[in-house]
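Q: What would this chain look like folded?
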Amino acid sequence: MACGRGRGDSKRQVILFILCVCVCQSRAETLRYSLPEEMERDSFVANIAKDLGVPLSQLAARKARVVSEGNEQLFRLDQSTGVLTAKESLDREEICPQSDTCT
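A: My prediction, written as structure tokens:
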């Protein structure tokens, strides 16, 4: 009976170890930028590759992308250059009408 229980515990430990390794290797980076109001279409925001400290070849390999909370994508990331630009003219009153600050 003790042997059967030990095998199950070992199997569980191995699965837990593998899960921990996978989670640690797939960490995500979050970058935040402050932008001026009335930012024009195609305006430069940042160089993501430079800010993350990763080679340009890694952006596509790591499937870098911009995630928005709403259903409208406001920014564009060029994976070949690492440059993040405003997809459209950004108007704070239009994006966040009920707030003095917009996140």
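The longest strand covers residues 44-47.
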